[in-house]
Amino acid sequence: MPNKGQQHSIEKSRQLQRNLYLAAKKDKQRRFHALYDRVYRPDILWRAWKEVRKNKGSAGIDGITFEMIEEYGVQKYLQEINEELVGGTYKPMPVKRVYIPKPDGKQRPLGIPIIKDRIVQQAYKIVVEPIFEANFLEVSYGFRPKRDAKQATERVKKGLYKNWYVVDADIQGYFDNINHEILLNLMKRRISDRRIIKLCRLWLQAGVIDNGRYEKTTKGSPQGGVISPLLANIYLHVLDSYWCNDTSNGEIIRYADDAVILCYTKKDAEKAYKQLQLIMNKLKLTLNPGKTKIVDMNKDSFEFLGFQYQKFRSQKSGRMLPYMMPCKKALKKMKDAIRIITCKKSAYEGLDSKVRRLNPLIRGWRNYFSHGNSTKRFIQLDEYLWMKLWRRVYDSRKQKKYKERVLYGFKRWYAKSGIEYFYKGNTDKYSYVL
């Protein structure tokens, strides 16, 4: 728990955000100056530290960890950052590039800044974000305060009740292809403080270390940086603004670089596709030709943020209505996670530790997908989990004669294990074993 002084610092920083937001909302053409001195304010840096520490993460290229900073002294460390920013000697270090596997077998590059840079970026975000939030539109849901992916998916389903064609847009390598000059010019529309713009430029051009080799960054914003989601939203706000000013092109719903455009007719969808290409050209971005397509909801489906959207005829009304369910990729990803945790055979004591690892995954998956038409998928996963755990206990080669006895013991353990349900209405979990 923070002490009274720390709590006061956090509240003071939030009051600054409220004031900046209200001022920006009142005059949407106003350009803000004298923001840099707020970035290095002690209360802002303290809050930035708390939020970066909460998010955890590994060390950057300097090898400095959170534990090392805490041993050194957090206040002392923040004071040194303050002095660098005040004196103009702060210079970000290159980010460490790591790769994480994607479901299609490819790898997604991530950039890990050093902790000092993460703290400064978070302080920068605290000060700058409210100004741009005042301009951001309702159609944007990604990485914004009080907005999330669940809201975006519900908005898509609601829009599909009256629309029959969808432009499923995929921007090719979005974060890697953001044009620095266009982005900085977009920021200058609201910010006149040169030091704030310069700080952003330093991060964009800091470079990356990939397998020990330094690479310059002349375009793009590395995924993984604290400031990257905000910069991404500033850049694509151009797209949102165009679409909301000309609603004849359909309804757009965007989450970061994932976007869908809902249209009533095929002609509208084709027009929207062409307009989307024109805007991408102006932003010096390209659509992925293999993934961007027009979907006819009378016969096809599409995926958005883990959900598969499809229209089926209602048995009650006879109308074609939209349904959203976990997509096959999301289902496979969850099954893979279950399989990894339950992969080794063990006694009942070993299963207890597996349950402790499984429950957070189950809760997270269930909470995200529960607002969709997910019952069938939830039951499938309950059955899959039951069988995976049962196979950790039962060996047909050795225990075939004792199957009933082993099954009885397993059922008793399962009932007391505290394992979570995917489908909360599923009360008979023992019907899965024949």
From TrEMBL:
<feature type="domain" description="Reverse transcriptase">
    <location>
        <begin position="81"/>
        <end position="309"/>
    </location>
</feature>
<keyword id="KW-0548">Nucleotidyltransferase</keyword>
<dbReference type="InterPro" id="IPR030931">
    <property type="entry name" value="Group_II_RT_mat"/>
</dbReference>
<protein>
    <submittedName>
        <fullName>Group II intron reverse transcriptase/maturase</fullName>
        <ecNumber>2.7.7.49</ecNumber>
    </submittedName>
</protein>
<dbReference type="InterPro" id="IPR043502">
    <property type="entry name" value="DNA/RNA_pol_sf"/>
</dbReference>
<dbReference type="Pfam" id="PF00078">
    <property type="entry name" value="RVT_1"/>
</dbReference>
<dbReference type="InterPro" id="IPR051083">
    <property type="entry name" value="GrpII_Intron_Splice-Mob/Def"/>
</dbReference>
<dbReference type="InterPro" id="IPR013597">
    <property type="entry name" value="Mat_intron_G2"/>
</dbReference>
<dbReference type="GO" id="GO:0003964">
    <property type="term" value="F:RNA-directed DNA polymerase activity"/>
</dbReference>
<keyword id="KW-0808">Transferase</keyword>
<dbReference type="Pfam" id="PF08388">
    <property type="entry name" value="GIIM"/>
</dbReference>
<keyword id="KW-0695">RNA-directed DNA polymerase</keyword>
<dbReference type="InterPro" id="IPR000477">
    <property type="entry name" value="RT_dom"/>
</dbReference>
